[in-house]
Amino acid sequence: MFLKNTLILRPHKLIELIKRFISSNDLENENDDGLMDERTFETLCQPYIEQKQTLLALLKKFDLLCERISPATNTTICKQYYVPSCIPRISSEKISLEKDEQSVVFYYLFDGYFPESLFHQILVRTIKWSQTNHVSTPKLSYRRGKFLLDDQHVLILTASSMKYARMKIQILRNNSTSTNTITTANNNNNKSQEELNSQLADPAIVAKVSYIQRNIVRKRAIDLGT
Length: 226
Prior knowledge:
This protein is an alpha+beta fold. It folds into two domains: 9-86, Orthogonal Bundle (Arc Repressor Mutant, subunit A); 100-224, Alpha-D-phosphohexomutase, C-terminal domain (TATA-Binding Protein, 2-Layer Sandwich). 39% of the residues lie in helices and 17% in strands. A hairpin with a 4-residue loop joins strand 6 and strand 7. Helix 4 (116-132) packs across helix 8. The longest helix is centred in the C-terminal third of the chain and has 22 residues, at 203-224. It starts with 10 loop residues before the first helix and ends with a helix. 21% of the residues are buried.
């Protein structure tokens, strides 16, 4: 409703302004977690600070950012926003790659073209869902998002390289990450199928995540008119 009463007279200026928020080059507090604080947001709004609320509404509408919901006990922290597109391409974070053997993995294929911008929008919608459902704070890195679904399950979204045009969805037991690093192939062969199945994600959790991600991708495609 707020944007319906907004008239943009100089769209080229708006595009230039939005570019500041979807590129890490202009960020004063550039980091690897995709978080932007309120002060940085206001700095990037200059010299149109009076249009801050309109710009914020636009960025939220197009899933370019979403506000971080802080714990109720934390009342002193400055307001922050998740902006996945601001994560630098070369991240200093060391990412542990979880093995597929002890996780449920499936892919969404995007018919030959899957731009980073679309993955960022999917991440933002997943963050919104996770915060609505009181899921733990997500951990973002370049082309990757990690979500702790509950005490036992982890969701990892990964954008494959451009040539594959697909998104990998991985669900695993929270306690299997450390096990993967010390378990050898021979040990895996000695385990019974029942033992291996017990280490996989709960089928109910897998079905829930599959349904949610399918809806997120479908709604994003509808918004894009595809």
